Amino acid sequence: MTQTLVDIVEDIRKQGGAIAYASRRGYRIERWTYRGVAEVACQFARELETRKICRGQSVLLWGDNSPEWVAAFLGCILRGVIAIPMDRISSVEFARSVCLQVEPKLGVCARELCAAIPGLPAIVMEDLRTILGTHSGRPYATEGLKRDDTIQIVFTSGTTADPKGVVISHGNVLANLQPLAAEIAKYRRYERAVHPLRFLNLLPLSHVFGQFLGIFVPQLMGATVVFHDSLNPSEIIGAIKRERVSVMIAVPRFLENLKDKVERDLQATGRLRWFQKQFKAAEREHFLKRWWRFRFVHRQFGWKFWAFVSGGAALDAETENFWGRLGYVVIQGYGLTETTSLVTVNHPFKLGKGSIGKVLPGREIKLAPNGEILVRGGNIAAGYYQGKELKPVLEQEGWFRTGDIGELDADGNLYFKGRKKNVIVTPEGMNIYPEDLESALRRLPEVRDCVVFGYRHNGNAEPCAVLLLADRDLDGESIVMRANVSLAEFQRIRRWFVWPENDFPRTSTQKPRIGLIQESVQSRIQGQESSYVPNSTLAQLIMQITGRHISHLSPEANLTKDLNLSSLDRVELLSALEDRLQVDLNESNFSAATTVADIERMLGQHAPARSDYKYPRWAQRFPVALLRILVYYLLSWPATVLMSWPSVRGRENLLHLKGPLLFIVNHVTQVDVGFVLAALPHRFRCRIAVAMLGELLQEMRNPPQEMSLFKRLYERLRYVLVVALFNVFPLPQRTGFRESFAFAGESADRGYSILVFPEGRRTQDGKLSPFQTGIGMLANNLNLPIVPVRIDGLFELKKKGQKISRPGTVKVTIGSVVSFSPGTDPVEIARTLKERMASMSN
Q: Which domain, by its residues, includes 694?
């Protein structure tokens, strides 16, 4: 039997060139093989050895989910060093407080966090593979580690003054991993039919459950783990389909938001009532019949997607029933950090509906007289670390008190009832579980989210509901009255409060921070000044994006004049709001907003519609890609040469480049692309995606109804030919450029270079127009070598109306490669690129 986790690194290495991780960085997807992860882990262990960081000392891991995070974590295990995983969204004050306790010797941090802890040497997480390149990736010899040695201390709670960490050992992880491995082994022969499984992990690796589903369990099946840097529902659905994801791991709130997204889209297309009838009709149908009935949803997610794994909190029955009836498997588990995540889990093929599973082998559970769940087994953490001291976790006879209330049925299924400390005891001695009341409220479509707590009044407690409404103008009283109809008399809500912001304050796993919410609401009800003053989500994000302090955000504040938001700032703000609130916002309406009040109204409406530009992935597939090459050499290239055989300078700048590259070209006429392609070597010429004015492409694809039928058909044919023969994709000037940039990243991942016209329009006088700041954003997020290409002489032909000229009249200059450091200001990139293009003038 494996005694430590060290052997797992070699098990990972044995998986060889299979893809272990696919991680989105900017607009690109970076893929790591299992062998690559193991090699970097060994390199990191050697780096720790070089720095004389020894067993029992600690390293801070503070960054986004990424293959580098995993490699650093495994490297710590190999070296016997204690990892201190920190939530990416943790405050700097909290991180510093933790560091004062554990005194880490090194930090592996996201680029912008490296300087957050004064005096702590730090490695940029994003550059880890490059930094460690001088070390050998051969297996690292580890000796003397024991099952009860600590691998990490997880700080998930406590004040910033004295945080409390949970000490996790090798044995704790193995106690949960080994029974899972034994069960998975029974089904490996069936898994071959759908290999490789792909997990989309939306849980932070700083949490033990995120580690199990992001590191330990996938390697048992040779699965691929996909990390995504956005919680926007539309983007997640797109990623599931594009990456052919099999299973999504997320917190309950995200499953609820994804359900809302499906229903909002149906409402926007006028099909919600039809869907509700279908949903009701499917109640008692066989799984396969339900799957077929809702095949339009399965088509949206992709045919390989079949299951959700929900963790971090209890999933409400309505959401579980929604996805189950649509033909998806919903797997719930139960555990805490102190139990190394898992205590019970639902078997994917033997689900106990509404339950949080059966107890895993190797541990025991029992219920105390008051219903509290008690756990015993090898998975219980070694202790708490607080005030530089190790404190016990277990009580008498080795039982751990979870603080959760549960029920067990005759089959051994565990049902979660709520947190013991949250139970509200009425003056009549009746127990009210806030989760029951929250469930009743969430069934109402007007309620986006809610929190129920016990409001103390005259020595007694009564339930108080805090509502997060879809529209703050809605009547909270009528909503509460409708919820009360489904509750028993003693459960009914008589005190309620509408939360004034767009979202609750939340933890990294998206749980509402009930303590802050309760303290704020009680202070308001009692007419006192709250120590927690809710900050506007909008104000926070504007300050984060612009770097400017905003003391007060007036609804009348003009986005351009008062807040100085550029068009690029708006793009970033839209993305940030969608991620923070996990909703889809109408990009067209967002672009048209002029004041803070306009945005606030949008946030209340939850407009589902997004830009309807189509991104022609079919143009990059066989046989269209092959047809494009044939047509180019038979028709396009001869036509360009006949018009004016261009003279080309600077082709040597491409000599050692393989691509993909980002070509930026000055915009002169509609035939610019032909001259650029003629100037490029064959290896780039045949694999290049061209950005074209999105609004123009949209008009060709959807010509106005006023046109005659013949003209409309002609325009649509023109659209198909332009897309197929020149591999163009839409780059709108007004709205939709985020999706356009994302498509450029997809194309680059498929090996296509990208060609854009950074001026955004054709020249009117032969001179360079200002470069749009979007080129800076694109350059930052594509992370491709940038090659400026300048066309001269073509404007003069256009001005004269000439169609044909002697060879050499048109000159194409290929500049040297330009690159920028990550995080460079997009405005600075645009300015520098324009200067570089201007200096290439003939």
A: 617-838
